[in-house]
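#random but structural
TW: two for the price of one
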Amino acid sequence: MALLSAQQKMGAAALILAISTVLSRLMGLIRDKVISWQFGAGGEADMYFAAFVVPDMINHLLVGGFMSITIIPLLARRFQEDTEDAWSFFSCVFCWMLTASLLLTGTGMLFAEKLAAVVAPGFSGQQQLRLAFFMRIILPAQVFFLCGACMTALLYLRRQFRVPALSPLIYNGGIILFGVLTPLVIALWRGGESYEAALARTGMMGYCVGVTIGAAVGAFLLPVLVAREGGLHLHVRFRHPLMGKFILIALPLMLGQTVIMLDEQFMRVFGSMVGDGAVSLLNYARRIAQVPVGLVGQAAAVASYPFLVELLTRGDKEAFDKTLRTAFTNGLSLLIPCSVWMAAAAWPILGFLFQGGRFGPEETLACTPLVQIMLTATPFWLVYMVLVRAYYAASDSLTPAVTGTAMTLLFLPIYFFWAVPLGSWAIAALSGISVVLYVLWLMKIWAHRHGSDSWRGLSKLAFRLILCAIPGGAAAWLAGNMCMRGLSLQPFVTATTALCMSGFCFAALFLPLCHFFAPNALDFLWKHFGRKRSPAEK
């Protein structure tokens, strides 16, 4: 436990969170691989993915994902001034979070059938009943997520990043474990029933149970144990002078459901209106498209936020702009070529990750264009992840919320009247368009208020990286498709071979072109691996 409660500096924190993000994304893909193998696209899988709409909305409403952003600046200041009062403030926030989460999840469980009809209007009556059953199992997880978010914020404040890094691994592990073992336990309990028969009987119930158990252990219990070791002082309290200021910071996040937060929910809601399998295919495609965003942007954004707050507190605007510029530059230098290659190799990637069991070649081909469409917007996702933390560090949660809400209201009728009649590809395309326009709007507002030094030279770098990546992407697409169509091997072996060939072709063309036309783009990587640049490169 002492190892988990140790403090880390920014570099170590970024490394820990980066490793955690990689492992978490990997486990998430393994989880979806198991689900796609057992259930394919459609039916139980559609209802399982749709069951997260209401729980995720509750999490967004109570700013569970942004708890560290809202509470850290206030809590840090109080600990510097009065430790006892800081614990009173923290207790007050925790008590209100516990109360609100219990009320909302309880209400959701009580009215699950009516909510199922709202979030999945395209499902049949029987499917909506099954969806309501899944929602009742999953909803209690939000109590653990939201209360655990308070504890995680406290650990971030103490610069203890190991437990927050472990939480998603335990969560995903719980889903996989209970999803796979529940049919086995049922089969044994029923006296030798086959696993396949037990799986058909239980469906995805075990995965839903795993969601709640994984959240209880990973998101709540472990952070509480480490926080207690560091001296957690928690007591019942519902009033504190700082609660008004906390609510003012959190309220825009509570009410401003932006297109970023609702992106996945829109795919589930409007996907249910397209037809059987659309929700699952959009979910699988989004999982793959979000991998480079999570790997490149999430760890750096989360780890850097406490330090961005510190820079603004000191009034060091120049260092603040430099930090943001470095995050943008380094992130896009990795994300753009990665996204181009993944779009070119989408077919073998899907074949490698998901094809098998009930997820056949037809589902792979249907999902491929969805992945390619979603990947086009990934650079803007990264810019959002970094830029929105700059807004929050500047104590401005209102601007992202108001602009995001306006963008959401603008795109809602377009989803309904344009995207749904055209099908899944239009939903994926509209998702990307809304994200791009929202991020450009946020960038314009930031430049008007604070200047554009944070992304000076960024567009030129992005343009060069895209030009360098296009020839490699074309070669990767050609090599991957030739392997997928021409090799007569076992499907997994064929996809693996195609993936390796496409990756080799992309790297063989991109790296030399990048060396000559964007020589500074990957400097941070060479520096990290200890390679000294030559004077010519400088």
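TW: number two ↓
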Amino acid sequence: MRVLTVITAIMAIYATFLVMRHNMHMFQLNGYKNDEHIRWLGKNIRQQWLLVFGAALGLVRLFFAPVFLDILILLTLFMDIWDYRALRRLNNKKKLVFTPRVKRMMAVIILLSAAVPAAVFMFWGIRPLNGVFMMVTALQALLVIGANIINHPLETMISRHYINDARRILRSMPSLKVIGVTGSYGKTSVKYYLETLLKARYDVLVTPGNFNTPLGITRTIREHMKPSHEIFICEMGARRVKEIKEICDLFPPDEGVITAVGPQYLETFHSIENIVDTKFELADAVRGRGNIFLNGDNDIIREKAALYPGAVLYGTSEDIKGYRAKDISLSNLGTEFTVVTPDNEEERFRMKLIGAHNVINVLGAIAVANMNGIPLKELKIPVRRIESVEHRMQIRDQGNITLIDDAYNSNPAGSKAAVETLAMFEGIRILITPGMVELGEKEEEYNYKFGTYAAEHCDYIILVGEKHTRPIAEGIRSRSFPEGKLKVFERLEDALSHAYGIKDEGHKYILLENDLPDNY
């Protein structure tokens, strides 16, 4: 009995670590939000069904001690180890980052996981321990939530200290101009494009990567802000109502750019109206302080712009009174377009980027730079220097194959624009996609529409993940797309292999549209 208990304890420790690590990884991807993690657990219960079985098995073992139950527990722990080692190999797109917060949470989880068996042993002896070990392993998916709740006061205190220090740094630089950039999509691209253009004249700091939350912005200021900086370009992200306002209250912007408003993160925003109100919290913050730049090609923004009479609009529509792009031409080498300013000044630009939506994003950056004193002529060379942002319509030439990597965070408007851009190339046009997520109740509808767009613009379509892409396939078939040119694979690697193996003559253009994160 004791030997069996020791063996169970050793296996349970290893299994517990693997289960804890996996769920901590998912918790991090879910933004450390309890409600989002609970929702994720509900959606992915089949992925971790062994934990449900293990919890029930452990509960029964607390009251009954036949040997076959102990053997069954050992087998279940062995299966847990096998499954979670496999999940760790699969979930490698964005690895678990062992931040100080993660380390503090894991310390609490380990203490709780050790304290329960210790307490049971002290009061009830060795008899129920096998069941306790099994239950501790099985409950790791919930213990991350418990640890987050326990640590909440400490995390709040630590965050407040760091944020106050970042605010102090900003107050010490009264001449610094803060430019906020937000939008349902396009904000990261515009941020980097704007950095390239403004660096032609100013000393610029930009929030790196996806550092678009209060703590990400705080970290950027504390670690990278220097007295010499003249402009701080601050990307502002949000998944819930009032989150842009929170950032603006902490780090007041002098100017702002709203790149687009559309259906994204509907699971947390719940409605388009909430998304609109949240994005325009940036416009409210800069009202009376400086310019707000709005994408006039976005119907939702254009309708809302009437409430902001001083706004600077940019886009391709002929009736836009702000900055307008016209005479757009696309080639394998990039895109050319002419910019017309509100004063009817014109200048021809050339860039390496492709896609009409990239023209709009670069135009927005040109508008901001020009309004900040940089003449159009001086912006021509910086525009040529603009590089593709990683995984956002990024072109990679591979001999007779051109890979167009648009794998980051696809959305309804962006996916439509991407396949329309693909259609502009002369050659074999191949789409690879797992579809779109985080669109709430509208997810199936938007994926179906995406399928109809894809069928009209692509020669071959390869879907990744049969279950999730079913609405896309239905949309594709509704347009009588050739069945032999539609394939479904479970892994991206297999989809790419099939695409490379297509034997039609001509140059292949392969569009990677979206790549689902590990928690999908």
